[in-house]
C-alpha cells in the first residue's frame, strides 16, 4: 500500500505536509525554517547556530526537564536539529501517541523562546567548545577548506560556526539582532512542517493546525540574490595524501536541479560493471569513492567527488575516465535513467523510517523519480559539466537487490541458524546475522581482503536501502544484513560467494585510509573490539592467499540468527546457506568482567575523551535500564549545563557484543580524564529517586509494536549472543517490578565496580587502581 500525502497552507502562511504511512510503527515531525547561517548578519558569525542551541534550553511553558529533548529521549525516540547555509531543521521521532506532546513542545519552543542572558552565557560556552573541537578536527578543517574554493565574496567561504568572540552577548546591538532574526524568520511564511506516521491524514492535519498556529504571521523575509559562486575558474583543492576532491560548481540552474543532482550522484556512485567506478576498480586504483552535494540555493549548486586512489593510479587518466562517463550519460535516454532511479527511490521509500520520510518531505525532496521539470534540469546539469567521447561504457545490468521474485526454494535451514520470533514477517523487514569464531591471528590480515571484496556489494546495498556490514571484533567475523526480505536473501548469496573466494584483485588491494574521527567517536568505534579482545597475537609474517583462507573457513565455528522471514522466504534462505562456510556451533555466554580496566585508545584529536562502560549480569539488566533511564536527564544537566564540560555528554544503557550495561561518555576541551571520572562518580553518589511514571514509560518501550524494526532485530541478536531470553514482555514486566531499594543497591554496586568497569580514554590511567 502506497503512502497518502496531503499539502496544506495555514492562515499564518505555514506550509504543512502530511504523510499517512500505515506500515510505520513510529511518527515523526520535521520543521524546516527557510533561513540559516547565510541569512544572519555577517557581523555576528554563528548567530543562527547559536539561536538553534538556545531553543533547546526550555521555556516557561516547558522548562528544560520537560522540554522537547527530555520528552523525546524519555520515550526512547530521536531528536536533533541542524543549521545549514540557508535552512535550519528541527526533527524528532516518537511513538504515534506521543506525536502531539512532541509537536506542542517543538512549536512552542520555536515560537516563544527564552532569551535570558544567563542561559545565553552558558550556551555560548557550549558553542565555543564545539568550535574548539571543530578547529582541531582535521576532517572538519578539510571540509572548510573545500568551501574556500569559491569566490571570497560568497558567504560559503566565510566562517559561520560561532564562538566566544563572534557572539558578543553584552552588546545591545547583538541582542537586538538576535531577536530580529527570530522575528523575521521564525514565522509562518518561512516554515514548512512535515508530519509522518500511521495516523490518518485528518488526524495529522488536526495536529498540524493546532500547533502550527502558534507561530506569528509575517510578510516573509526578503532575500537578496547571493553573489556569484565563482569570479574565476573554480580552484580545485590540494590532494590530501591519496584522497582527491574534485569540485563542481553551477550557476543559474533551472528549478529541479537539486533533485537532478541526486540522480547524477546515483549514477556516479554506481560501481556495477560498465561504469566509471568499475573502470577504476578494474585498474586496481579505486579504494573508496563518495559524492555529495555541498550547497544548493537560488540556482547555485556546489558538489564534489571524493576519491581515494592507490599510489599506482594515474590521476589524469582517472579524471579522463570521469569525463568519458559523463559524456556517455549525455548520450543516454534520461527517461531510461530515471526509470532505474525511480525503482531505487521506491525501495528507499518502502524502507524509510518515519523520521527519514519527514525530513525528506520537509525539504521538498520526497523519494520519487524526476518530474519533467527535473529531467530538463538533469539535461542542463550534464550540459554544464566537462565531458568527452572516450571509453567503453555501458549501463549496468538490472539490480538483483531490487528483484521482486524469490530465488529457488526448497532447502531446510542449517541447524546452527536460530529463527527469531520477535519480528513478525508481516513487517516486510528481515535481518540475518552470521558470526564466525576465527582463532587464528591470520584473521586480521584476511579480514582486510574480505572487506575489500565485499565493498562493491555494500555500495550497491546502500543504494538499495539495504544494510550490509562485515565487522571484525575480537576473534570474530560478523556479517549482518537487514532490509527487504528478497534483497537480504539475494545479497546473502552474493556475499557468501565473495567471502568464500575473493577475486584476484582484492588480495593485494591496499586498505583505504579512514577519515579521522573526533576522540569520543573514535572511542565508541573501539569499544566493541575492546570488549572482546583477549591477549594480542603477533601477526604472521606472510602474504595471505586463498589456501590460507580455505583453511580458516574450515576451522571457523559459526552461529547465526534469522528474523522476519516467512516460510517461503526461509526455504529460499536455506538454499542460499547450503554452502555456508565453517562448522556449526552453539552460542556461549560472554565472559564476565571483574574489577576496573583502563584501555588507552589513540585518537587523532587531543581533547580529553572518556567512555565508562559498566557491564551488568542478566538478572540486573532490567534495574540497570531503569537506572540509566532516570540518570539521563541528571547527567546532561550536571555535566553539560552546570559544569559545562563540553558539548559531547551522554549516558544510556547499551548492548554491545552480548554485554549489556550503562555507558557514560564525555569529551571536554578543558577537563582532564581524572576530573571527568570524578564528576561522574560524584553524580552517581547523589543517588536517584524512583519515578513511577518514568518506569511505566520505559516499560512501554519494550513492545515490538513500539520499537523500530531495526531495533527489534538488534535486541534479538544481542540476546542471542548473550544466551538470554529475547522475550520483550519479560523485560517489560521486570522493569515494572523494580523498586527504590533495587536502584539504590545497584548504584552502590556501580560505584564499587562490583561487576567490573571498562574505561576507554585517549590517555593513560590516572592512578594505579586501574589494572
UniProtKB/TrEMBL annotation:
<comment type="pathway">
    <text>Cofactor biosynthesis; pyrroloquinoline quinone biosynthesis.</text>
</comment>
<keyword id="KW-0479">Metal-binding</keyword>
<keyword id="KW-0645">Protease</keyword>
<feature type="domain" description="Coenzyme PQQ synthesis protein F C-terminal lobe">
    <location>
        <begin position="431"/>
        <end position="562"/>
    </location>
</feature>
<keyword id="KW-0862">Zinc</keyword>
<dbReference type="InterPro" id="IPR054733">
    <property type="entry name" value="PqqF_C_3"/>
</dbReference>
<dbReference type="InterPro" id="IPR007863">
    <property type="entry name" value="Peptidase_M16_C"/>
</dbReference>
<dbReference type="Pfam" id="PF22456">
    <property type="entry name" value="PqqF-like_C_4"/>
</dbReference>
<dbReference type="InterPro" id="IPR050626">
    <property type="entry name" value="Peptidase_M16"/>
</dbReference>
<dbReference type="GO" id="GO:0016787">
    <property type="term" value="F:hydrolase activity"/>
</dbReference>
<feature type="domain" description="Peptidase M16 C-terminal">
    <location>
        <begin position="178"/>
        <end position="334"/>
    </location>
</feature>
<dbReference type="Pfam" id="PF22455">
    <property type="entry name" value="PqqF_C_3"/>
</dbReference>
<feature type="domain" description="Peptidase M16 N-terminal">
    <location>
        <begin position="19"/>
        <end position="147"/>
    </location>
</feature>
<comment type="function">
    <text>Required for coenzyme pyrroloquinoline quinone (PQQ) biosynthesis. It is thought that this protein is a protease that cleaves peptides bond in a small peptide (gene pqqA), providing the glutamate and tyrosine residues which are necessary for the synthesis of PQQ.</text>
</comment>
<keyword id="KW-0378">Hydrolase</keyword>
<keyword id="KW-0482">Metalloprotease</keyword>
<dbReference type="InterPro" id="IPR011249">
    <property type="entry name" value="Metalloenz_LuxS/M16"/>
</dbReference>
<dbReference type="Pfam" id="PF05193">
    <property type="entry name" value="Peptidase_M16_C"/>
</dbReference>
<dbReference type="InterPro" id="IPR001431">
    <property type="entry name" value="Pept_M16_Zn_BS"/>
</dbReference>
<dbReference type="InterPro" id="IPR011844">
    <property type="entry name" value="PQQ_synth_PqqF"/>
</dbReference>
<dbReference type="InterPro" id="IPR011765">
    <property type="entry name" value="Pept_M16_N"/>
</dbReference>
<keyword id="KW-0884">PQQ biosynthesis</keyword>
<protein>
    <recommendedName>
        <fullName>Coenzyme PQQ synthesis protein F</fullName>
    </recommendedName>
</protein>
<comment type="similarity">
    <text>Belongs to the peptidase M16 family.</text>
</comment>
<feature type="domain" description="Coenzyme PQQ synthesis protein F-like C-terminal lobe">
    <location>
        <begin position="626"/>
        <end position="712"/>
    </location>
</feature>
<dbReference type="InterPro" id="IPR054734">
    <property type="entry name" value="PqqF-like_C_4"/>
</dbReference>
<dbReference type="Pfam" id="PF00675">
    <property type="entry name" value="Peptidase_M16"/>
</dbReference>
